[in-house]
Amino acid sequence: MSEVEARLAALGLTLPEVVPPLAAYQPAVRSGAYVYTAGQLPMVEGKLPVTGKVGAEVTPEEAKELARVCALNALAAVKSVAGDLDRVARVVKVVGFVASASDFTGQPGVVNGASELLGEVLGEKGVHARSAVGVAVLPLDAPVEVEIQVELAE
Question: Do 140 and 41 meet the contact criterion of CB atoms below 8 Å apart?
Fold first, then answer.
């Protein structure tokens, strides 16, 4: 077990299987020393546990937990092309999309779920630049979607 996966286990988490693509794309691709993930939905065992807009059908707290699931799915996608999460030199960028009710403005707090998970699992290597964007709707009516870019050590 890698050090990163041992940290996940200490948090009571396991790396899931890579979420299969919903359309014509790959879950992650490598270009040189970088891995770019597709947007990861908070799928758990092939299903969305919650659907709807944050600030309406979904609470910000629920959405923050879902963002953690998205980040976990993103790490699984990274591992699928990197081979070992211990090769992650740093998380460079995180982009979070939050399906938001028209008056909801707490997108950064929701996406903190992903950022905090990456920090818990990767320590200083998990510190990153980030965008948190409110959108009208996401695929499958998901409340949140997260994509990450990581740099690998050779």
Answer: yes
DSSP for 50-108?
--S-BTTTB-HHHHHHHHHHHHHHHHHHHHHHHS-GGGEEEEEEEEEEEEB-TT---HH
Contacts of 61 (CB under 8 A, 6+ apart): none
Considering the entire predicted model, what is its pTM? Answer: 0.97
**Strand, coil or helix: 147:** strand
CB-CB neighbours of 6 under 10 Å: 12
Beta bridge partners of 134: 98
Q: How many Cβ atoms from other residues are within 10 Å of residue 99's Cβ?
A: 26
pLDDT digits (tens, 9 = 90+) for 39-74: 999 999 999 999 999 999 999 999 999 999 999 999
Q: Give the residue carrying structure tokens 């709707």.
A: 137
Distance CA 65, CA 77 (A): 19
